[in-house]
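ok so for the tutorial part 2 we go from a plain amino acid sequence to predicted structure tokens. step 1 is just haveing the sequence, like this:
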Amino acid sequence: MKSLATLSLVMLAVLLSACAETKFVVHTAKQINNATSDGQPLGRYKVGSPYQINGVWYYPQVDYGYEETGIASWYGPNFHNKTTANGEIFDQNDVTAAHRTLPLPSVVRVTNLENGRALVVRVNDRGPFAHGRIIDMSRRSAQLLGFERQGTAKVRVEILPEESRIMAEAYSNGRPIQLASLNIPAAKVPVPAPNAAPSVPVSKGSVSAIPGAVTLTPPPAPVSPAAVSTSPAAQGSAVDLAAKSTDISAVIQTLPEQTEIFVQAGAFTNATNADKLTQILASVGPVMISPREVKGKYFYRVRLGPLETVEEADRILEAVIDRGYPAARVIVE
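step 2 — the prediction. this is what the tokens look like for a chain of 333 residues:
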């Protein structure tokens, strides 16, 4: 009887052990299903409700026709490894961006109008909330677009509708995908070929030696890349480092564009209201009314400018906001 009782206890221990192991496997599987292969949170698809920051209301929405020009900034070290608005972990070395109203994630092409570089990025966070900015790039994205050192750049932001739909569906179904899997063709932003330089015929002939001429020693052979120092000081700027990276292939070189910066205080359908605002803002800077027709309706835009620098635009924008117009914004055209 004693041996039978002992056998029963052994079998019970085995069953309890198997049950505990099963629970552990199920728990681990749940963790894997809610994280990437390296343990990072997958993130989720999110549009979001209207929200207010610093007195300004923002209205997130699906907008597959979105295109805007303005000023871009970048963010990195202070937010690295923190949670993004759609539940991912922000990596400053990834090619991502933050936008105030586009769905998360969305796929956009950002073009630096100052140097012509264009880059496709995934929007996975909310921001920027500094006045006068339309998009916040990750540090890596700013490096690839060539404006990390200066901090800001005049840019055009365009949503890629088909790629954004694919991304939205994947995230909604719990199957996040990377930009690389979308196979976005670079040919969408072609660069015109330069005109060929005129050719001149060249003839070769023998020249007799000049009396008293001195033969010069040829210069030393160029140093191989392997012999160049790899210390941080010798590697060059962040843009130079970006050019050596494999993801530089994601950058498309286009032609730079000549643009001007304005601060738009408001847009009115009534010209009298626009005229009143110009009088209120006359002491702030050069103000004008710029009419424009949109879908058959005329708007009278009250603008200050053109302005020389982003810093000047920031100063004018703050002055307009202080006078009671928090919806004022910086425009690049």
